[in-house]
Amino acid sequence: MSEKISNKVINFGAGPGKLPFEVLKDVQNELLSYGNSKISILEMSHRSNDFKKIVENAQKRLTEILNIPENYKVMFLQGGGTGLFAAIPLNMMTTGSADYIVTGTWSAKAAKEASKYGKVNFVTPPTKTYTEIPNKSTWTFNPNASYVYYCDNETIHGIEFHDIPETKGIPLVVDMSSNFLSKPIKISKFALIFAGAQKNVGPAGITVVIVRKDFIGSAMPICPSIFDFAVVSAENSIHNTPPVFQIYFVGQVFEWIHKNGGVENMNILASKKSKLIYDIIEESQGFYLCPIKKDCRSRMNIPFRIKNNEELENAFVAGAIALNMLQLKGHRSVGGIRASLYNAVTFEDAQVLANYMNKFYKENN
Ligand SMILES: *Cc1c(COP(=O)(O)O)cnc(C)c1O
């Protein structure tokens, strides 16, 4: 039954996003009794050995698939991506100021939150519409900044960095919530990487944090214990009751990625899937419009308009729903359409959307 449903329905939602069907199925099978425990994962003590192993295995698998060096710690925090917007300055703003590269809604929110705890410098000139990464010649860093912060993939606007910003030695912090595990990354370039799970790696309620160990232990005295990297790290992410199910689930997704060619394969697929859609947009001669500059278009979230005509866009979304393609409506702040092509969206899924876009173009151009 559920197999049929999954095969028929394609979820293009931006977050919570599509999860690998195989993982959902395994989790369903195991839900009533985890391993030999005779109880559900949902009922399991976070102090049990079973759960300690779940945390350790998830850390181990992630370390393997991302090639995380020894001097980094993998932690699971609560409070979502938004929690990290506060936890980062609370732990890392040791000089009283930090630099923020603002390229969209999420990095703007992070900068606003950080300004509660110290001085925020804007690296890039402020822009009204987020359609590009401002040219590097316009960037100014503050040599006294504790860290430089940026968002690798702006989920709402569809802007993605295709290389790592050069910060002249200032520690680099990145929000990878919506493109985490979609490509290999050079961990050693970063002081901290974080990702809220619900975009590309699991259900909402857990945030994966990879932090260089020398950035643990400098939290401000006002930092809540649940956000204090030293506390979380010392108790291996079991300081208080963590979302046991969510950590178990992301661990299963790490296994799934490992079994499916790793981040190297996710990277190849992300390029192939997104190229399929961007090519149609480009070849439509203005019927489909993507406002984002070509050199920073996201492979995960593709926002587009249809002749800037809301009626056509509504018809597109309704027609897609009739064909079981769900959650294609753009974010309320930018309108239009947004197709999210996370890891669990297959190449075949992207092809179904591409065929529909071609057909819709022919019928409405
Ligand atoms: C969704 C999102 C967030 C916020 O995540 P929450 O878990 O809802 O707090 C932060 N950054 C990016 C890039 C996101 O896509």
Helices, strands, pairings?
Blueprint: H1 2-8, E1 10-11, H2 21-30, H3 49-66, E2 72-77, H4 80-92, E3 97-100, H5 105-114, E4 119-122, E5 148-151, E6 153-154, E7 159-160, E8 172-175, E9 192-196, H6 197-200, E10 207-212, H7 229-234, H8 244-259, H9 262-283, E11 288-289, E12 301-306, H10 310-322, E13 325-326, E14 337-340, H11 347-364
Parallel strand pairs: 1-13, 3-4, 3-5, 5-8, 8-9
Antiparallel strand pairs: 2-10, 6-7, 9-10, 11-12, 12-14
Helix pairs in contact: 3-8, 4-5, 9-11
EC number: 2.6.1.52
Pathway: Amino-acid biosynthesis; L-serine biosynthesis; L-serine from 3-phospho-D-glycerate: step 2/3
GO molecular function, one term: O-phospho-L-serine:2-oxoglutarate aminotransferase activity
**What is the chain-wise order of helices and strands?**
HEHHEHEHEEEEEEHEHHHEEHEEH
Strand elements, count: 14
The kinds of small molecule bound in this structure are: pyridoxal-5'-phosphate
And the CATH topology of the largest domain?
Answer: Aspartate Aminotransferase, domain 2
Q: How can the largest sheet be summarized?
A: 7 strands, mixed
Discrete helix count: 11
What would CATH call the homologous superfamily of the largest domain? Type I PLP-dependent aspartate aminotransferase-like (Major domain)
The end-to-end span amounts to 39 Å
Q: Over all CA atoms, what is the radius of gyration? A: 21 Å
Q: Please state how the strands of the largest beta sheet are arranged side by side.
A: 2-10-9-8-5-3-4
Q: What is the typical, i.e. mean, pLDDT? A: 96
CATH class of the largest domain: Alpha Beta
The domain tally reads 2
Q: Quick one: overall form?
A: globular
- Name the CATH architecture of the largest domain: 3-Layer(aba) Sandwich
Low-confidence stretches: 1-5
User: Which class of secondary structure composition applies to the elements?
Assistant: alpha/beta
The proportion of residues forming helix, as a percent range, comes to: 25-40%
- β-strand percent reads 5-15%
